Amino acid sequence: MHPLRFWICIFTWLFCSEMCAEQLSLQWAKSAPLPEPRSGYAAGILDGRLIIAGGTYWEGTKGNWTKKVFTGVTHAFDPIKEQWQKLPDAPTPIGYSASTVIKNKLFVFGGYTGRKINSDIHTLEKDSDKYVWKNFGPMPASRLFAGAVSVGSSIYLLGGTERFEPYDESGTCCTSRSAVNTLLTFDTAAAKPQWRPLSPFPGSQRWLFALETDQESLWMFGGSYQEKVSDPITRIPEIWRYRIAKDQWEKIGTVPTAAIEGSPLVPIWAQDSMLLVSFKKTVWRFDSASYAWSETTPLPEEAFVDKFCILNGQIVGSGGENKLDGPRRRSEWTFIGRILASGKK
Asked: Domain 40-267 falls in which CATH fold?
């Protein structure tokens, strides 16, 4: 080997070793409780505030939760004042929709109203200093539990189910026979935005996967499947990467057993790292360059927060489920995570 190449290799190895040794740590705090606790909501950041729209909750009490209720109630959380504000309700009760934000507008796709599939795309935005809901147009197909992300002016809608498949009449969730593998997109900047299909993900049917983007690729983690109520839940540990420029999927590894046992996972893209929060409050860091996994600071409580968002360099999330009064109890906890400077192992 040429001496120059030798020293280049040595330098590269040392540099990568140092980078791989870096650990991202978090400092979590609990803030003002969500006024009407719920899960299965739409969420995003508008005007520097966390928006939570719609969702589901249960009527009844501990040990006797009787009926799942779908709501259109909408709130905004200001992380500086640590206060919640009531906003106009969504046009219809809606749960298990997909959502993302483009240019300070929250897009809400599909979902279930408690009586039927929502066939419309709703948006929430500020108009003349007031928040208003608008109808953006029809959905391209029936979708619940889908994933949505935005890249530039384009929105990507992945997977989901075509029907609401509860275990019983009270609304206990859910089998996933109608899960689909589709990937659809449209450009919000187009004069007449139209949906177009992209390459579907090649893996098996699933729902409750984690979806996030680094603005160049879509990253899909895990998922589960259940054909019948009497069947065991199949946990799917696969990690798939979709390269947007190539319209191409590739399988790049698996989620660690300890992480998949705490699924579903909630993804956050922060400081060039993918963070995934489990129902067991463990927070995992996935290095998208080396595909290495490590643990970082856990949540202060066990909760399944539906979505975390980055806001002013902090991680903010609220609602979902907790384990205090059984799996149907909605959580009022609001979490704020401060991202600390990376240290070394």
From this structure: Neuraminidase (2.120.10)
